[in-house]
Design a protein that fits this description.
GO terms for molecular function: ATP binding; ATP hydrolysis activity. The N terminus is likely disordered. By secondary structure, the protein is α/β, with parallel strands linked by helices. It is built from ten helices and eleven strands. The chain binds adenosine-5'-triphosphate.
């Protein structure tokens, strides 16, 4: 198998919320088998455009330097790289949560904050679910709508519609976070992102705290859902197999300062299921991505 690799400025996309783990008999988020290759593979210009981005915190050295990348609408892009190379920082800059000190990020030609408000709602999913313990599942999920001033009846309607999509029942909706497994809390966190009907989903290691079986299950379900909803996704992970399984493109970052060192196109068709993960072809590809990562880390 040939890995297509380019070297610096490139296209991609991705992200959403949080978690913890459980050995879990989890209800599927979505029936993966029913979701084919339905997402438009937009051949248009980039939705997210990062140009010559640099960032230096006031406290120290340059964290990101000369970062160039593009993410097309509907793409799923994974950011992979050594710990501390700046993956989360880059994700936050792309989402408009922090400002760069050089270069620019645009989403559909606008600054992220403006794009989010006017044209492209986005959601951010963190590793920790950050659910409010005193609120029920339903009240946690509707929180972003409440903060936006959406009428209560509409909030409730949106919550009810989101529950089956992320494998939660009406009975689950009345529970408090403390009575949920880690996987269920993650599902609530995903529902909280989903309820805002985002165009762009930024995910920062959302499955890192889950056990392998549940992690793989959620990889499949979230990937299928992202294709069904045609989300543009930027996904940070340390896990090579996860990146290879979920992404259209894997961006390998180097550190000190953080920059895109490799862009690897993922050659697998959709839908991607457990059978792909168990194939020799997948093992070979993941091995090759791993070698790329190790090479970058040795620089
Ligand atoms: N607010 C901040 N002020 C100063 N330095 C920061 C700040 N946030 C992050 N850093 C530093 O920026 C660097 C990149 O951090 P970042 O969390 O983006 O890396 P990462 O690749 O996501 O790491 P990991 O994979 O371990 O989560 C680190 O050296 C970190 O200490």
């Amino acid at each position: 198998m040939e890995i297509i690799q380019r070297s610096s400025s490139i296209p991609m996309s991705a992200i959403t919320p949080d978690s913890t783990s459980s050995a879990g008999h989890e209800t599927p988020l979505i029936d993966v088998a029913k979701v084919g290759a339905t997402r438009a593979n937009a051949a248009t210009g980039p939705l997210i455009d990062v140009r010559d981005l640099s960032l230096r915190f006031s406290t120290g050295s340059e964290i990101l330097a000369a970062v160039n990348l593009e993410v097309k609408q509907g793409e799923f892009v994974a950011l992979l790289g050594p710990s501390g190379c700046g993956k989360s920082t880059l994700l936050r800059v792309m989402a408009g949560l922090i400002h760069s000190t050089g270069g620019e990020v645009t989403i559909d030609g606008l600054e992220p904050a403006s794009a989010r408000k006017n044209r492209h709602p986005l959601a951010f999913v963190f590793q920790d679910p950050t659910l409010l313990p005193w609120r029920t599942v339903r009240d946690n999920i509707r929180l972003p709508l409440e903060l936006q001033g959406v009428p209560y009846a509409e909030q409730m309607k949106a919550v009810e519609a989101s529950l089956p999509l992320i494998g939660l029942t009406t009975a689950d909706a009345t529970k408090r976070p403390r009575s949920l497994s880690g996987g269920m809390r993650m599902r609530v966190s995903l529902a909280r992102a989903l309820v805002t009907n985002p165009h762009i989903l930024f995910m920062d290691e959302p499955f890192a705290a889950l056990d392998d079986v549940l992690r793989q299950q959620l990889n499949e379900e979230v990937l299928a859902l992202s294709r069904q909803k045609q989300w543009t996704c930027v996904f940070v992970t340390h896990n090579v197999a996860e990146a290879a399984f979920m992404a259209d493109r894997v961006l390998v970052m180097r550190s000190k300062p953080g920059a895109i060192a490799r862009v690897i196109e993922v050659p697998f068709a959709h839908p991607r299921t457990a059978a792909l993960r168990e194939s020799a072809e997948f093992a070979q590809f993941a091995g090759q991505v791993n070698r790329e990562l190790r090479e970058v880390m040795s620089w």
